Amino acid sequence: MKKLKFIGLFILPMLIFSCSTFEKFDQFGVGNTFDESFTVNIPQNSNMAFSGTVEFAASDDAIISDNLSDIQEFEVTQIGFKITNYVGNPEAVASGSFATTSDNINVGDSVMFSNLNFAQIFASEELMVLNLTSSTYDAIKTAYLNNQTLAVDVTGDIAGATEDLQIEFTVYMSIEATIGNQ
After folding, report:
1. Which DSSP string do the residues of the chain spell out, in sequence order?
2. How many other C-beta atoms lie within 10 A of the C-beta of residue 23?
3. Percent share of the chain, pLDDT over 70
4. 38: phi then psi, degrees, rounded to nearest 5
5. Residue 130 to residues 7, 77, 115, 140, Cα–Cα distance (Å)
6. What is 90-122 written as a DSSP string?
7. Residue 165 has what pLDDT?
8. pTM for this one?
9. How far apart are CA 123 and CA 55, in angstroms?
10. How far is CA 124 from the centre of its chain?
């Protein structure tokens, strides 16, 4: 019985100390990478133009969504894409642009690309990070923190395709946030 009292006396101070420690815990960090995909089908006899869109919202992450008013720091660390499936002519190349929009209004600057070989990107499994300006990242941050849905739109043209093409894009957006009582 003495052992049980000793254990109880040992655990009680730990619980009291632990509770006071957690009361001092007033902020925490959150990091997440979201991904959304779309597939483009381009018939051989078409004009070889393509487009697709993915959307991201603060509601995609319950912790961010539940704590929007308590976010002290927020950063979009990168936006990029992978070609996660490619069927078609391996010599075809694409030119076009990536744009970020919110409520159908451009948010920041578009990123232009030319002579991208999607078959090679698919084979390499490489994440192609979009070279966005700091003002574009700031505009994305503002829209995101205002709980607006962000869209990443890709449009372009294919050259050198001699057969039907099917291309699956997966777009990634990575964020980091500090949440706490202000």
Report:
1. -HHHHHHHHHHHHHHHHHHHHHHH--EEEEEEEEEEEEEEEE-TTS--EEEEEEEE-GGGSHHHHHTGGGEEEEEEEEEEEEEEEEES-TT-EEEEEEEEEETTEE-S--EEEEEE-HHHHHHHT--EE----HHHHHHHHHHHHTTPPEEEEEEEEEES--S-EEEEEEEEEEEEEEEE--
2. 8
3. 84
4. -145, 155
5. 58, 11, 15, 13
6. TT-EEEEEEEEEETTEE-S--EEEEEE-HHHHH
7. 93
8. 0.79
9. 25
10. 20
Percent share of the chain, pLDDT over 90: 40
With a cut of 90, say whether residue 113 has pLDDT above it.
Answer: yes
* Amino acid of residue 72: Q
Give residues with Cβ within 8 angstroms of 57, minimum separation 6.
Answer: 144, 147, 148, 149, 150
pLDDT digits (tens, 9 = 90+) for 5-36: 444 445 545 554 444 444 445 777 778 888 99
Residue 62 token pair: 């319950």
C-alpha closest to that of 151 among 56, 38, 60: 56
**Residue 149 CB-half CA count within 13 A:** 7
Stated length of the chain: 182
Q: Six-digit token pair at 48? A: 């070889």
